[in-house]
């Protein structure tokens, strides 16, 4: 989503990291893969590698940072998906190794971020860990730990390991089951009495927002507000 991408760019800029966008990069391939369009997914992967490779090969980038954990989970698998492609196997492995979720990348700047905060828009947060982050990427605790280090009161709901029901295309293909999972997740999130619900994947954020009046957003958007004094 453009608003999340813009917030990520501003947060990185605030700590002196120049974000670069590669011309020609697009969808990571996850949606096509979910829909069993494997050839289309591989085409998306190759297109992205072609777009990113000049920046990687020249040493212009140190990491490929993702602010959607579903995309990050997919990009980290590029090496496996293209393992037997003689033209892309090596570059796919390199791209996968450089991929990081924003929650993996930002904690190194925690002291700097803390010194730059202009206030906290809210104090009490509920954090929903996306499945693609905690299970797919095996990344757990980084986002909520960073937010706590910056002074936010962050609570995890009961059954935080369970899916919210978005699950890529699951909310479209299995709407009733998806809604049941969403409502169960929202009940547990509401029990923490949050002022906002934050997460790290656009699919989760949009899906959860359809069932609650509590604002749901990417945690990096909240951090952007805190850094730039936005209401």
From TrEMBL:
Q: What are the Cysteine-rich domain coordinates in residue numbering?
A: 2-76, 126-208
Instruction: Show the GO MF annotations.
Output: 4 iron, 4 sulfur cluster binding; metal ion binding; oxidoreductase activity
Task: For this UniProt record, give its keywords in alphabetical order, as a comma-separated list.
Answer: 4Fe-4S, Iron, Iron-sulfur, Metal-binding, Repeat
Cross-referenced PANTHER family: GLYCOLATE OXIDASE IRON-SULFUR SUBUNIT
This chain belongs to which protein, by name? Lactate utilization protein A
Q: Tell me which species this is from.
A: mine drainage metagenome
